[in-house]
């Protein structure tokens, strides 16, 4: 996956109102991503500058998180054998996910 | 795996559903409250993620306080809750099929209270599918729940009160707002003032928001929308356009262009009718309530026995009204199940209905700002993708209509519009408005027939532990 955010070095996380969960590292397409326990995977990927989550089926156009509430299904990722909206999935230390295009390439 | 019995099953733990569950339980009903999220609050009072804690020094917003109070009340009352579960089907006699972390479960309620809230409408423009372009509701969730900015420099566009809430939320969190583009005019906002008389707190909040934007020097462009968003280098280039009172773009070469790294846009909320459509309840189109809604009496009773609707999913009236609406549905449910006598019901109901009317007045005024503008739909450019799941453009919808697609189901069969994993939740309202331009009215266009699964599920999830030996094999019919 390529970074598509303009300034991934600057944090989008704001900490004036909360104390975040534990700092953890999870794995996306074989690569580690630093995040905080409990964050939604979609938000954590977005904050890491990984905005493009998949390609649309017909035009092959880039897509990313859109509704953040489990409705639009734009942010689907593979978790083992389940395809889930990453906005409804919490970051955890042992979590390994794959983007749809990565698994397609890996499996062929 | 036979379904577990329960008196009242409440779907959705936002203000309407949570209040409904509390009230139904207080009436002596056996209640189960279900939600996809990890805790109650819905979108408006969305909880912070599990493992997060509110900073002791941090200022808590009124929404955070209301949400925390509701969650505490549910726990005090020991309301049975099933969080992290998605409802994917309603079967015979209102049997609810759900999937949670431990697999599939089924419940057989005597009554079903649907309080599933809304989804956000976005009127499409070229580039609205680009990563980094997200809904206003999504930005709200990022800010309030995830405690993240949508971008370092964000364009905030669309219609309704979420515009100001998101723009000021970004400023408070230390982000930059490139511009606010509002389809409404200052006059549209002024017309909502009388309804605010009953809610001076919200009027004051609105004025504070405006002052904050002014102080930060954020350009607020009324009667403006997004013409297009394009990827430009590592960021986004947002072209704007002036619009008329109907939302229709006007010819104007001077509308400014903004550079940003994120765009958040929304044009109002649409009641979630997946479940009531699946159950074939009667629906009506009410633009002032957000679109198609299940026909219901003042207590939320629908045309299907045992099926009740409450909150914004029954028609946009706002979070304050949603609580009273939920309680009304719960009372009706308790009465209909013979657990509440007519006199007590009538007394409680009168009190709640007047409370609902007071709160709904404000909610309806905000709803009017968010109502779909015909001109905005008419102004969608032909090659713009309308159905995100299937990449169906406006030109393809128009072509199907010209070829004879007369209602939404035909449009779906013709073009695959609404056939993707979102089940038409993202595109259905705007596609309906586009088809109505050809067939005369929203009523004529109708809406997509509700279908299971309500959420995408895998066969393995649905089947669970089911094995070949579990399949009942009927005896061969006698010849």
Short description:
The complex is a heterodimer of chains A (about 110) and B (about 475). Chain A has two helices and eight strands; from the N terminus they run βββαβββββα.
**CATH topology-level fold name of the largest domain in chain B:** FAD/NAD(P)-binding domain
Strand order of the largest sheet of chain A: 3-2-8-6-7
Query: Largest sheet of chain A, if any?
Result: 5 strands, mixed
Q: What are the low-pLDDT stretches of chain A, counting only 5+ consecutive residues below 50? A: 2-9
The most extensive interface, with participating residues per chain, is:
A-B, 52 and 61 residues
- Which of globular, elongated, flat, extended, rod-shaped describes the shape of chain A? globular
Mean pLDDT of chain A: 90
- Structural class call of chain A reads alpha+beta
CATH class of chain A: Alpha Beta
Number of beta-strand segments of chain B: 22
Question: Could you tell me the strand content of chain B as a percent range?
Answer: 15-25%
The CATH superfamily title of the largest domain in chain B:
FAD/NAD(P)-binding domain
Q: How much of the polypeptide of chain A forms β-strand, as a percent range? A: 25-35%
Task: Break the fold down into its secondary structure elements and pairings.
The complex is a heterodimer of chains A (108) and B (479).
Chain A: E1 18-19, E2 23-28, E3 31-36, H1 41-47, E4 54-55, E5 62-63, E6 76-79, E7 82-85, E8 96-99, H2 100-107
Parallel strand pairs in A: 2-8
Antiparallel strand pairs in A: 2-3, 4-5, 6-7, 6-8
Chain B: E1 4-11, H1 15-26, E2 31-34, E3 53-54, H2 62-76, E4 81-82, E5 86-90, E6 96-100, E7 103-114, E8 118-120, E9 133-135, H3 136-146, E10 153-158, H4 162-172, E11 176-182, H5 186-190, H6 193-196, H7 200-215, E12 220-222, E13 224-232, E14 235-242, E15 257-260, E16 262-266, E17 269-271, H8 274-278, E18 283-286, E19 291-294, E20 307-309, H9 319-336, H10 342-370, H11 374-378, E21 385-387, E22 392-393, H12 394-403, H13 408-415, H14 428-439, H15 442-445, H16 459-463
Helix pairs in contact in B: 1-2, 1-9, 3-4, 4-7, 9-10, 12-14
């Amino acid at each position: 996956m390529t970074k598509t955010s303009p300034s991934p070095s600057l944090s989008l996380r704001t900490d004036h109102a909360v104390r975040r969960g534990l700092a953890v590292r999870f794995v996306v397409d074989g690569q580690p991503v630093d995040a905080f326990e409990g964050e939604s995977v979609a938000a954590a990927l977005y904050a890491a500058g990984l905005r493009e989550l998949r390609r649309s089926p017909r035009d092959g156009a880039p897509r990313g998180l859109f509704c953040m509430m489990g409705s639009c299904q734009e942010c689907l990722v593979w978790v083992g054998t389940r395809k889930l909206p990453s906005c409804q999935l919490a970051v955890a230390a042992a979590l390994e996910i794959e983007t749809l295009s990565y698994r397609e390439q890996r499996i062929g | 795996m036979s379904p577990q019995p329960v008196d009242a099953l409440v779907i959705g733990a936002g203000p309407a559903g949570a209040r409904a569950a509390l009230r139904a339980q207080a009436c002596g009903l056996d209640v189960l409250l279900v939600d996809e999220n990890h805790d109650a609050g819905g979108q408006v009072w969305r909880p912070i993620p599990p493992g997060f804690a509110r900073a002791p020094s941090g200022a808590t917003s009124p929404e955070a306080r209301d949400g925390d109070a509701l969650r505490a009340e549910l726990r005090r009352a020991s309301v049975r809750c099933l969080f992290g579960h998605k409802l994917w089907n309603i079967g015979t006699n209102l049997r609810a099929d759900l999937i949670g972390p431990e697999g599939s479960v089924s419940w057989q309620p005597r009554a079903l209270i649907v309080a599933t809230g809304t989804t956000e409408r976005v009127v499409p423009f070229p580039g609205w599918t680009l990563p980094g372009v997200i809904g206003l509701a999504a930005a709200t969730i990022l800010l309030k729940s995830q405690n993240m900015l949508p971008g370092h420099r964000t364009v905030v566009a669309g219609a309704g009160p979420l515009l100001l809430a998101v723009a000021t939320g970004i400023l408070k969190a230390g982000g930059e707002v490139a511009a606010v583009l509002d389809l409404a005019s200052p006059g549209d906002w002024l017309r909502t003032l009388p309804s605010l008389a009953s809610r001076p707190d919200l009027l004051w909040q609105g004025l504070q928001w405006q002052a904050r934007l002014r102080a930060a020097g954020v350009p607020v462009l009324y009667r403006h929308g997004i013409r297009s968003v394009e990827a430009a280098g590592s960021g986004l280039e947002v072209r704007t356009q002036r619009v008329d009172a109907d939302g229709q773009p006007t010819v104007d070469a001077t509308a400014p262009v903004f550079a940003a790294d994120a765009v958040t846009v929304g044009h109002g909320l649409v009641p979630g009718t997946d479940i009531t459509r699946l159950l074939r309840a009667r629906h009506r189109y009410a633009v002032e309530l957000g679109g198609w809604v299940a026909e219901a009496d003042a207590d939320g009773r629908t045309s299907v026995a045992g099926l009740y609707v409450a909150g914004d999913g029954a028609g946009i009236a706002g979070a304050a009204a949603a609580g009273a609406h939920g309680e009304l549905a719960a009372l009706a449910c308790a009465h209909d199940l013979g657990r509440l006598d007519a006199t007590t019901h009538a007394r409680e109901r009168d009190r709640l209905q007047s409370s609902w009317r007071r709160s709904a007045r404000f909610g309806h005024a905000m709803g009017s700002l968010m109502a779909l503008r015909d001109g905005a739909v008419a102004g969608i450019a032909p090659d713009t993708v309308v159905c995100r799941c299937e990449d169906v453009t406006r030109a393809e919808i128009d072509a199907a209509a010209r070829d004879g697609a007369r209602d939404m189901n035909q449009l779906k069969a013709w073009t695959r519009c609404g056939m993707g994993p979102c089940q038409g939740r993202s595109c259905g309202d705007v596609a309906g408005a586009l088809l109505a331009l050809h067939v005369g009215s929203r009523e004529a266009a109708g809406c997509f027939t509700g279908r299971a699964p309500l959420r995408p599920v895998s066969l393995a999830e649905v089947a669970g532990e089911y094995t070949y030996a579990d399949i009942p094999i009927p005896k061969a019919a006698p010849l």
